[in-house]
HD-GYP domain-containing protein (Halopseudomonas sabulinigri), 413 residues
Amino acid sequence: MPRHKETVKSLQVMKIQTDQVRLGMYISELDLPWLETPFLFQGFMLEDPDDLMTLRGLCRYVFIDVMKTRIPVTELEQLPVASKPIAYPVSSDVQAEIHSASRHYGKAFRHVRVLLERIRTGEENSLDEVPELVRGCVESIIRNPSALLWLTRIKHRDQYTAEHCMNVGVLAMALGRQLGIGRKHIELLGLCGMLHDVGKMRLDQDILNKPGRLTAEEFDHVKLHVDFGHEELSQDPDLPEEVLKVVLQHHERLDGNGYPKGIPAQGLDFYTRAITIVDAYDAITSRRCYSSARSSADALKILYEGRGAQFDEKLVIKFIECIGLYPPGALVELSSGEVGVVLAVDPQHRLLPKVAIVRDAQKQPIQQQIVDLAANRSEDGAPDLRVRQVLVDGSHGIDLEAFTQANINLSGR
């Protein structure tokens, strides 16, 4: 490039911290690839507070086009650094939030189940209510993600596809909250998640639910669900293009070894990268007709080992932070041998959650005892109890659904 063009570009483009970004700026370049963000256009006028929040959540700095920016150059030269509070502070505890979360989850789940059944039977369906149902879940996620994440752990094998769609939507929204992106982008992640697998209802259900290993021909048939889903949802002219992309591409991989088209990383957008991760997590932690459920810890390990090849590395790390080592609702074995359900985790003591102990060291049922591992310490300050391992949901006959219904208003000591 000729030197005078370089000079013009350097005068026109300014690099600033995202804490200094303001509405009215023209964003011309980011500190990460555009495909790793939810922004559709590579260069845009910043007019939406949600987009401003998203920039601050995902990027450390950006480049603005001074000539296109509406803020005078004299002001740009003395931009103050904005305070950067936590994007979404927790505003309710899990025991209080689970009432609202359960209501929103149930309403959305029932709608998803009806939608899938209509697709299976070839009936006409409508997606008009889905965005509003997603918004209700987003409000709960914003207040405290632990409540809805807890509900994603309650699973039934005979409702796998509907629950999986619902849970992937919830997990995707929780990831969006962790990233600090704006609500409209969190809502779009939820919509992508809830609809990503609708094409499975047009498959041969005997093949889809086959308990044994699929033949090559049967697996080729299962792969068609992405095309079927895309065809089904393309009939709705109001559905965002990002959702259609996710439906078609959520089994693609960054290394190009996915399906249906083997699209490599440079062709996969932010929403697809995010849904791929949460889709795998929920599948691994669920009982399916052909495989047993694995623990949350195992699932996060698999995601971490697949980062860079199958999954987006930055999003995997953020998802691990979002779920945590001991997520609410997880079954854990303590150093004493006792078994309990994680109720809540203090961000200051992530390895020492509050636990409802329901099995003794011999794994026999006992009267429930709630213990805050962070608060119970010996004279030298060391914790009396620690988590020894995370167990698979349902271990030792512990029914999380029954536990939740019986303990909506848990209080600790």
Remarks:
- The chain has three domains: 3-76, 94-323, 331-406.
- The beta strands are 13-17, 26-30, 44-45, 61-65, 331-334, 339-344, 354-359, 365-372, 387-391.
- The longest helix spans residues 94-121.
- The CA atoms of residues 24 and 70 lie 5 Å apart.
